[in-house]
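Q: Structure tokens for this one, please.
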Amino acid sequence: MQPDLWQFEKQAASSGYRLVAGVDEAGRGPLAGPVVAAAVILPPDFSVTGINDSKKLTQRQRAAFYPQIRQQALAVAIGIVNAVAIDTINIFQAARLAMAKAVARLDPEPSLLLIDGKFPIEASIEQQTLIKGDARSISIACASIIAKVTRDKIMLACHRRFPQYGFDRHKGYPTATHKEAIAIHGPCPLHRKTFKGVREYLESGKQC
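A: Here is the predicted structure, written as tokens:
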């Protein structure tokens, strides 16, 4: 039985929080490309059905939900941290930074943040962390869809710059074909140079 995805939003409303934002990110695991976060504030009468954790949806389902969420949401904001920054501050801090950037761009400003995961972010707004929040909160689930679709679009643009890696298919994740392409061509500027599967080729002097 699927849990009530509105439970945390309802609890927040009953506690006096007027606007609640769900916050999630996409792209921690890839070897290339940015980490992308989204923050979403939904109205109480949000009527899109079938929403779930973006990882449990097909690409087609996510693409269908994306415009519906953007149309009905009170606010949607994106935060992006590129591969250079990921290598500089590490992926954990980069993901938190991307989420903080997304929250800072929300208008109107929410009174409570529901953050996917167990770690809070740098923000002056009160926040609640939810482990596996993208499967427990409607706001976080919507944020996960927005973040994933946005990142996929970015990786399609990356594919046009560096078609030899097949970013249009694997979106930078460490698939066998992606790792083979890195072995053949070496890393490109979009690759995360501190990640295993990339740094070995830099150490050997191979680079696109």
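A few notes: The chain has a mean pLDDT of 95. Residues 138-161 form the longest helix (24 residues).
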